[in-house]
Amino acid sequence: MTSSVGGGVASALQLLWILLAGPLALGLMRKVRSRLEGREGASVLQPLRDLRKLSTKQRTRPTDSTWVFAAAPVVLVASTVVAAAFSPLVTLSALLASRVDFVAILFVLLLGSVSLLLGALDTGTAFAGMGASRAAMVGAMVEPALLVAILAMSLGVGTSNLSRLVGVGVTTSALAGPARILALVSFFIAILAETGRLPVDNPATHLELTMIHEAMVLEYAGPDLALVTLGESARLVLLLGLFANLALPWGIASGTGALALVGGLLAVSIKVGLVAVAVSVFEVTTAKIRLFRIPELLAGAFLLGVLSVISAVALR
Amino acid sequence: MTLEDVLSQRPARAHLDLEPRDLLDAARGLFEAGFHLASVTACEDDDALRVVYLFVDGPPDQRIEVHVRLDARNPEVPSLAAVSFPAGRFEREMADLFGVVALGHPQPRPLVTHQHWPAGWHPMRHEAARAPFDLDAAPFPFNPVEGEGVYEIPVGPVHAGIIEPGHFRFWVVGETIIKMKARLWFTHKGVEKLFEGRDVDEAVPLAERISGDSAVGHSLAFVLAAEDALGVAPSAQAVRERAMLLELERLYNHVGDLGALCNDTAFSLGQARAMTLRETLLRLNDRVTGHRLLRGALALGTTTLRDLPQRDELAGIAERVNDVVALAKANSIVMDRLRGTGVLARADATDIGVLGVVARASGIARDARDAHPFVTTRAYSTVTEETGDVLARFLVREREIAVSLAMIDELLAGGGVTVTLPQSARGTGTGIVEGWRGAITHRVEFDANGRLARVKVVDPSFVTWPALAVALANTIVPDFPLVNKSFNLSYAGNDL
């Protein structure tokens, strides 16, 4: 009984953390990018201020859109929060953490992507439809790459439970080795594609015709846009957090004691911050690949995942 | 002088008066002799409409004017669209603004005027009073493209970035563009009409504002035309300084374009470096002329500068350009995006009659600094690339920056030979200048009081715009901004 209360507290902490860390990570990434380009850049807090501003604005929706359009941002935020609650971010002992496998977490997360895609189609505008079709193309290749990457890691330790997968990494070196490195690289590329970062998509562009992700959400305004931005940034942090904990599992809390949770919170914040900075540095120096090279890139990520599975089986 | 004399003697300047029925044969003869059509314009005299065709070739600098007088009540000329694509565009413009009908034109529809313009109202005619405009609510018909999976994307005229207005309509299958149509003239301001009645001093600031990024190009073309018409010879010093200003304008625009091309591939490091360099150049402009966009330095017969660039300053700029270019070239993703994208074949470029950077990137060695020079320098050479893709247009800009820097250096060291241009001193004149986009042509006519009666402005964008749609064939939609930026045509200069 006590442990499930503790798990509940831990889960609540995780979902609150992700809603705050999302916008902050976005602000941090923009700041790093600005400084590397020789600009001062806006404050790290700017995305939070933007959210406050957007949430007070009038709600406008396309005339012919239906509840699908209106529900998409809510589903995006809700699915991200649910996935965050059960994931090994701050602690290994979040609510239901021992009973949820990685397939469940990833599929809950991808529910948000699908709802955004449907919301975009619902507007009936040229840009949103174009963005949705591109996002569907990317998404269809991201999912297998993500799944195979985690499958490869789980084969090495014989569990499909994410918390146990991270936990094993803390105590043993069972996850080290070629299989894990290949899987992590594959996982990282898939995350960049799924969250619309370079070299797949340019989150900073104003060129409508080149957009993937931004085109899909072009019709959202005011509080709806605030939800979309919040949900997307939270999802970015969740995926970066999972990656960070799989790559560098140390520091994550194993229990749900107050001290352990504070330590875990610090650890995951620092790790996600480091990964976010690394992503920004990478983004400044790279460029956006041609649209029809995206399948090549993601097929490459998938292939790395398959190689990782093979080496995991072979080395067992 | 007759057409036969012109073709056999190749004079530097000539004036032919022709009957409408002789026009087509004369044009054929001139095109076969290698002449290009630089502008077509109507002028309204007291008793008639006069259409003036300006044929040019060079080197050596040759400009042949063909005048055709028409009945003002029923102005009709035979269309030259069958022998020259640019002629067809000029004729449509003339039909809208003057009501001159081009007989046998294959596309007898409005070009400049949108649906809400009053029907039958030709704003350039003297008697045209201000007419009532309808609301811009009429649908703009495009020839529809139909078929399995064809998807139509309308873009603009209001865009997400701070750029000029133009409407683009794409028909795509999957991501591949099968057709693109541009609708421009959202910024038609009646610039040519605004010139009427001004004296030269009042007209130069207007010429500087035709297209904000080509202040020197347009005002210099205007000043040269006015000097031709009025018989004013500038000092050798002024001519050298003009050449330097023209290259300074090319520098800051080409550097900006290199950065913008990096930006359109999302290569932000290259863009950031290029934009800081552009800022350095703008501050240099400010020091030299008192204006960041080089306004206010040119006048009839003279040039006024506040300061000169330092030669070591130019060396530093050259180094920084090389850094930006090296960064872009070292990035395989950027190069992959530029290479083979938006190819404009040389044959298409020739048929359309494109000018400037776009022409030279498709292997056409045309440059007004070579064909119609007012200064010759040792540092100048015509830069061409053969592939006609975005990369070729990137490389032409890169190499032209080097040429410009060398030219400025030579001019600062007192080098460069000024060319004495022939002057009519009879109230009409032409000025041709290689602006950073391409050849800018102005043709002016003064009235007896020394005030401007008619100014015809041709920005290279006017003739080059149709080539964009051709270069887009088989390009994918997300590469459109990149191709468009590599052309970087002016809306203001086109719409006038």
Describe the protein's topology.
The complex is a heterodimer of chains A (316) and B (496).
Chain A: H1 2-36, H2 46-55, H3 67-86, H4 102-123, H5 126-157, H6 162-171, H7 178-194, H8 213-216, H9 222-247, H10 258-285, H11 294-315
Helix pairs in contact in A: 1-2, 1-3, 1-9, 1-10, 2-9, 3-4, 3-9, 4-5, 5-7, 5-11, 7-9, 7-11, 9-10
Chain B: H1 3-9, E1 13-18, H2 20-32, E2 36-44, E3 48-57, E4 62-71, E5 76-78, H3 85-98, E6 101-103, E7 150-155, E8 167-173, E9 176-183, H4 191-195, H5 200-208, H6 215-230, H7 236-264, H8 268-289, E10 298-299, E11 302-303, H9 311-330, H10 332-338, H11 346-352, H12 356-361, H13 368-371, E12 375-376, H14 390-412, E13 417-418, E14 428-434, E15 439-446, E16 452-458, H15 460-471, H16 480-487, H17 492-495
Parallel strand pairs in B: 1-4, 5-6
Antiparallel strand pairs in B: 2-3, 3-4, 7-8, 8-9, 10-11, 12-13, 14-15, 15-16
Helix pairs in contact in B: 5-6, 6-7, 7-8, 7-9, 7-14, 7-16, 8-9, 9-14, 14-16
pLDDT averaged over residues of chain A:
89
How widely separated are the two ends of chain A? 38 Å
Strand arrangement within the widest β-sheet of chain B reads 1-4-3-2
Q: Total helix count of chain B? A: 17
Q: Give the DSSP E fraction of chain B (strand runs of 2 or more residues).
A: 15-25%
Shape of chain B: globular
The separation of the N and C termini of chain B measures 34 Å
Q: Given the C-alpha coordinates, what overall shape of chain A results?
A: globular
If helices are DSSP runs of H or I spanning 4 or more residues, what is the number of helices of chain A? 11
Number of domains of chain A: 1
